[in-house]
Design brief:
homodimer, alpha/beta, Ribosomal Protein L25, Chain P, Alpha/beta knot, 7-stranded parallel β-sheet, 12 strands
Chain lengths: 252, 252
Amino acid sequence: MSAGKIRLYVEHPLGEGQTLGLSRDQAHYLFGVMRRKLGEVVTLFNGRDGAWAAEVVEAGKRGGVLAVQAQTAPQRDPPDLWLCFAPIKKARTDFIVEKATEMGAARIQPVQTAFTNAERIRRDRLQAHAVEAAEQCGGTFVPPVADLTSLDALLRDWPADRRLMFCDEALASDDAQQAGPGVSAPSCSEGAAGAPWAILIGPEGGFSDAERARLRAMPQAETVQLGPRILRADTAAVAALALWQQRLGDWR
Amino acid sequence: MSAGKIRLYVEHPLGEGQTLGLSRDQAHYLFGVMRRKLGEVVTLFNGRDGAWAAEVVEAGKRGGVLAVQAQTAPQRDPPDLWLCFAPIKKARTDFIVEKATEMGAARIQPVQTAFTNAERIRRDRLQAHAVEAAEQCGGTFVPPVADLTSLDALLRDWPADRRLMFCDEALASDDAQQAGPGVSAPSCSEGAAGAPWAILIGPEGGFSDAERARLRAMPQAETVQLGPRILRADTAAVAALALWQQRLGDWR
């Protein structure tokens, strides 16, 4: 990996001629793990100012200083898409956050549903996963991970103008044809590009009948089916994000 | 989980009135882990005969007997789609096999490329992951996991009639526009539904220039771009499978 390929998320504003100090963790990563040396160049981003080349001007075991040189990529924000999902087992929840970041979600919203086992999440740990995924995928944006909220509260305050792609795993069966009206192919309506959207992925046990009825009744909601097999929640999240990005997002 | 919801893959032929003996592992899972009892019903499939209800007629610590009753779902094979991918770190390779099964690949082909670190795979372990994913996702088909082969050998014998969706991560950047002709949107050509297809996902380091040139020159190949961020291989596999299934496969 060449020096410039190391990408580091920082909170500091980025601009030509700025210098910034490294935390102990960042210094350990850059100098201990990645073996960067004085004079070498890394890439910095802060989620707002694009990507910047920065030179190592001080390197120590407990800290260091970088001098910001020039912008190497403009800031690029993802489309206004939330990924709402019910937390599952630890490793798979981490994966969903990582994948949502790579796939270009603008906000990650953990949701407690009737069949969700998780009572709480470690928001700070999930946020760190989003940072790491952004460093890895070459993006300049880090989606905020919101606090766990109940589906009830989320839907009560649902914005009138935000459409909702509701992935109903109950449709993944041979009786999907009897699902009734309002169920669309996995592609959501065109003509809605540029509008605020959200994707909602249920827990392993799916949604309760009451939740499903409430979601179907929302004028903003569009029920979609992700094929004839039942997908795990982490698989469903990536699949739904891919279909959305291709149809309405920044993969077009 | 109700009794009938337990799904077990067996190698035995399935038909009305058949009985079949359980291996020690299967008995441990059914009676020890899942606490099934005499007279309860589970679902069996063997990848060929659809899904069948079967009653527990003997249950022991080291074995048991099931009596096959009636077919509950017809055999449903996925479209003729191979997923070819370069093995990566162990956990992520397991994930790719799991996801390919859920998403409906017909064959899983690990490929050694110029930048692939893995020298070998545990084919039997990956196959077991595919079985477990099929049990989980409600499918009746288990994709075979092939032995690791070199990209060179794979392409040398590439079938003339099998189209290849080549996911080139080098296009995931701001200079993607300069990628040249032959690069399509992430959706592959329509009008090719029903034809044999394959998806090829590269390793973390992408493809070498020589590999890329060779792939681009194949008449069967279609180069696609999966958005502006660089996806990890396991993310790319799910995203590519979703786009393909929606456009050409059994999600239509």
